[in-house]
Amino acid sequence: MAARVEAATMGGEIDEEESDERGSMWDLDQKLDQSMDEEAGRLRNMYREKKFSALLLLQLSFQSLGVVYGDLGTSPLYVFYNTFPHGIKDQEDIIGALSLIIYSLTLIPLLKYVFVVCKANDNGQGGTFALYSLLCRHAKVKTIQNQHRTDEELTTYSRTTFHEHSFAAKTKRWLEKRTSRKTALLILVLVGTCMVIGDGILTPAISVLSAAGGLRVNLPHISNGVVVFVAVVILVSLFSVQHYGTDRVGWLFAPIVFLWFLSIASIGIYNIWKHDTSVLKAFSPVYIYRYFKRGGRDRWTSLGGIMLSITGIEALFADLSHFPVSAVQIAFTVIVFPCLLLAYSGQAAYIRRYPDHVADAFYRSIPGSVYWPMFIIATAAAIVASQATISATFSLVKQALAHGCFPRVKVVHTSRKFLGQIYVPDINWILMILCIAVTAGFKNQSQIGNAYGTAVVIVMLVTTLLMTLIMILVWRCHWVLVLIFTILSLVVECTYFSAMLFKIDQGGWVPLVIAAAFLLIMSVWHYGTLKRYEFEMHSRVSMAWILGLGPSLGLVRVPGVGLVYTELASGVPHIFSHFITNLPAIHSVVVFVCVKNLPVYTVPEEERFLVKRIGPKNFHMFRCVARYGYRDLHKKDDDFEKRLFESLFLYVRLELMMEGGCSDSDDYSICGSQQQLKDTLGNGNENENLATFDTFDSIESITPVKRVSNTVTASSQMSGGVDELEFINGCRDAGVVHIMGNTVVRARREARFYKKIAIDYVYAFLRKICREHSAIYNVPQESLLNVGQIFYV
Asked: Which pLDDT does position 191 carry in this prediction?
């Protein structure tokens, strides 16, 4: 086009019209060039963003080493000793054991966890409760049925739909048909969670004790008691600094673990080259067959030690929330997997030449010139590995707490940058005491290894069963693929489990006892919580009774706002009728507050609250449902109150606008589209809540729209509405009182003895030592009013 304009210019004199045309062509040419420049710039920006994304992904992959792979990476410290605790009888057993380690690492961590299980995360969240939350969103398997249809409208409430006659739909109906199946699914999840908690006790014990055991190799005169003492000192120090969080020192974790992987890989290459290159034939699976063909119980039970090579996968999945799945996959395939293979191959080459050194294979195989640097790196890596499992335990306890499966404990947010970094003081000290007891009690890594292996294999079995349901209900895989995955996983894991059964009396009983204790606590607490909710549901007050009392509710309405906390998301709780029948007065404005946890990882702040009116306007009664995900933390009371009243005021304004634009009827609905409502409100810059309305005894949804401006035209036209807003604001200034129910649960006289023990002793004890609701919600004591009631189960 530029050439055409230039040629026309050289042609001589042109008239004005042609000049205008040529000018327009020139403008068009400029616009085209500008458009091409913009497109080129856009492509350059895309390339830069892609390049930046690739660099960011590599950076996250590097950082994931310290958080995700510390536990798995420190396994070479103790695997060969636990595989051959009674010594090596045949040199070929070393090749067979190495071949088993290679293919165990390939089948379980690489293929199953990194490339399959990690994809089953709940918006980046991992762990058994994350899988359970996914299932709860795709099927009604939650034992406490407190969900409402508006919860499904959350932006984080993602789920898929099924065809009515599909295999997924049939599985869903089968699960939902009986309560016993829902309970069995929950118990399965609790068993997996309890085993991970046990892992949080055993991992620090075996990792730190194995690292400290290096002292005896270079300093033979040191007794085992000194090694145990050093390990205990390290463990006490580790648990004592947990309240500081990992935000300040977390940047050190990745370099330490990266240096650890490079070191063990380098030493592995050195040992293979120096001692025996023939160990590389272990990559052929035929040596696994020959290993078992030689027979003997010792070879079968040695699987318990070989399985320790894949410990850390449960922490891998539980700590997944810190990094994208692709970063975790890159880190494992590029760094972790090859480094571990080299490390185990190097140790096998060393003990092929020095079979008597199998008890300290890792430290014995280190060249003398780098021994003490490697000892320091190993100890640091063991501490990082322990930190990863402790953090995973805190995360799982928080998730169990949100699902109503754990007594209320204090949860401290240790980082402003990262939401997932939390600290649970009570659990921390329990872990420390049990960890020290295990370390000082067993005094050797063999029995601790047996206990550790038992915990890990049970977690793997639980994950396989949950993944089967995930593949059917969430991923909607063909049943043939589900069957292949399940059978292959169960064959491998049940093989390891059968080997661990022989070691129950050699330390394997420890995680079973620990898990049984936590399972009892969690089961009894959930049972008591479920019965309390059922009592609230069955004893709630009818709206007819409330309406019969009249606007004054048959009482003196005193200035102020009463926030009545309840577990019900609909209906008037029994605590309210109990309150007004025993006291002659109630506040001028009453708001029923329900704090509800949903099976989602988080609820956005702008979707946090649901607000509705209860009864006629002159009753001044409202309901507010505050929704949280299992990763959300309750904010301070001032912020909670502020958000609650903002939502309440906005509800009143929007309700007035609906009346102004809609016909009078019992059912309120949005007049026209949401865009029409936005135009009515005006354009703001902040997100807020929009309530839709219907009859006053049902709840409605809140969806984000633009916030109402300071001057609301529709509401200002209605003096009654302005009066109500001023009335509520005046009551708020007069004082806010938090009314909470203190419900005591007791077993009936005719109840069976185990129920009496569970309710009257175990649950009562847990209620006594756990935190009160007022502490969880940060309610000031001077404005708290407890209302007691008793019910029998």
From this structure: 94
